[in-house]
Amino acid sequence: MLAAVTPTTAAAGQTVTVTGKNFYSADDQITATVGSAAAGISCPSETTCRVRIPDLGHKGSVELVVTTEAGRSNPLTLTYS
DSSP labels for 30-57? Predict the structure, then answer.
């Protein structure tokens, strides 16, 4: 479950921090998507992940989703600049 993303506006190559819970995967298979694009993700704890924003090719509001072995998270809205 995602609680917040900071900052809420980011461009390609920038990193945002996502907070929530249950960021755990026994096989390290945690993935993130921003809009429809795969994003780099690193989760140093079960409550925090860092997501590197991919190049989306357009500006505007997009959804950020994290997927773990427990399933797909709720989406959070991020402004891609």
Answer: -EEEETTEEEEEE-SSSSEEEEEPPP-S
